[in-house]
Amino acid sequence: MKFFADFHLHSYHSRATSKNLNLESLYQWAKIKGIHVIGTGDFTHPLWIQELEEKLESAGNGLFRLKSPPKEQNLPNIKTKDLDIFFCLSAEISSVYKYGEKVRKNHSILVAPDFETVKKINIHLNQIGNLASDGRPILGLSSRDLLEIVLEKSEDAHLIPAHIWTPWFSTLGSKAGYDSIEECFRDLSEHIFALETGLSSDPAMNWKLSSLDKYTLISNSDAHSPQKLGREANIFDTEMSYYDIFKALKTKKGFLGTYEFFPEEGKYHMDGHRNCSICLEPQESLKFNNICPKCKKPLTIGVLHRVEKLADREKPQKPQGSPGFKYIIPLPEIIGEFAGTAPNTKTVQQTFTKIISTFGNEFDLLHTIPYEEIKSKAGELLAEAIRRLRNHEVNPKGGYDGKYGAVSIFNPGEINQIIGQTNIFGGGIIEKMVQSKSKTTKGGKVIQRKSAKNQSLKPGNEHQMKLF
Ligand SMILES: [Zn+2]
Ligand SMILES: [Zn+2]
Ligand SMILES: [Zn+2]
């Protein structure tokens, strides 16, 4: 069966996460987004593992179910399609250590099929650092040694390098990473079969390195709040089981690819300095010798630049047997652009509820439901936004040095223009929202929306391919 999975996320025990990042909210948001398998996150944390054991039961396939799923949805009046939600035991470790005269900081995702394996891993790791200090603990051991510990405990437990390109905390990152996966994992490299590309890179960028051809490229949300679930996700066509999922990632058979954030939206796509408001393309940074023109300190080199530095191909080349990917924009961001507000406002939430209740879940809307059906059920404006997303007719603006980028679907003034041409009293969901917003503004004038920087997608746009 075809299903979606998001393995890397966190619980409320991790730093800088939402207080309601618990199993019940994750379950509810998995249904809203349309994701069948979600990571538990943080299985190294003693209180979280206790809660997981209490509330989850084995589904008999290496995955787990919530014993008593919440009856009510946490968004009022939202109706979702019925979906069986499974949990996969997962965690993230931050390894900070010195290797080859350089301080390395690498994040790794761990997964395991049963509590017994998790406990063995935890007992071992607890001798190295304090697992209770954070849902994502910082340990003074190398990624290679962490992998060795995981492999010793069970042949079905796996380590996947997390968000491999982020500058400060990743395996290939510019500040504290390595130049190759092999340099990091040395004699155990053959046990690495998948890499998480992270929000700031997409598979096409990774296809510029022939050394990564053999790896399966996966994507997860790294959610720090339940609403952020499925910012990126993996698509499978296998039996629903832990073992089949990881067999698919090892063999690339039964793995259908990923849903991707536009990489520009990620926090570390471009080079720059957040505090200096300096954001540069790789070529511009090179002109400044990678020094900030404002404060004269070294720039934070982003993912785009780092990929270029390690790339051995002019153009991305999709490895044989690798699946493709599709871009997504979170639905609240799409609605926010129409509303001229942030994605977390009440207006956006009410409209989000209506749209999800109409189509069953977010992933179905973004890439499965036909354009005509969206148009007839929810109106022309939403249909046009989804059409543009599917055709990559969007304007991304790159993030840098920890600041998220943005993607707008419409050019400045264009929404007002489209509204002028369509019958906004025609009853579409977005049309109604726009209509009631304009009523509440003075003189019924349509509100001014935040302007989107009119920046088109990279030329050539190799990643505009029909994938699955
Ligand atoms: Zn991380
Ligand atoms: Zn994380
Ligand atoms: Zn600076």
Describe the structure.
This protein has 468 residues and is of the alpha/beta class. The protein folds into two domains: 2-264, TIM Barrel (Alpha-Beta Barrel), CATH 3.20.20.140; 334-393 and 413-444, no CATH class. The chain has 16 helices and 17 strands. Strands 1, 2, 5, 6, 7, 8, 11, 12 and 15 form a nine-stranded mixed sheet that branches. A two-stranded antiparallel ribbon has the order 3-4. Strand 5 (86-99) and strand 6 (102-112) form a beta hairpin. The two termini are 15 Å apart. Mean pLDDT is 91; it is low at 442-468. Bound molecules: zinc ion (3 copies). Residues 92, 107, 162-163, 169 line the site of one zinc ion.
What is the radius of gyration? 22 Å
CATH topology of the largest domain: TIM Barrel
* Helix proportion: 25-40%
N- to C-terminal distance: 15 Å
| Structural class by sheet pairing and helices | alpha/beta
Number of strands: 17
Described by strand count, sense and barrel closure, the largest sheet is:
9 strands, mixed
CATH architecture of the largest domain: Alpha-Beta Barrel
Q: Indicate the CATH class of the largest domain.
A: Alpha Beta
Counting structural domains, the number is 2
Strand-residue proportion: 15-25%
Runs in which pLDDT lies below 50 for 5 or more consecutive residues are 442-468
What would the average pLDDT be, to the nearest integer? 91
Spell out the CATH superfamily of the largest domain.
Metal-dependent hydrolases
Query: Which small-molecule ligands are present, each listed once?
Result: zinc ion
Put simply, the count of helices is 16
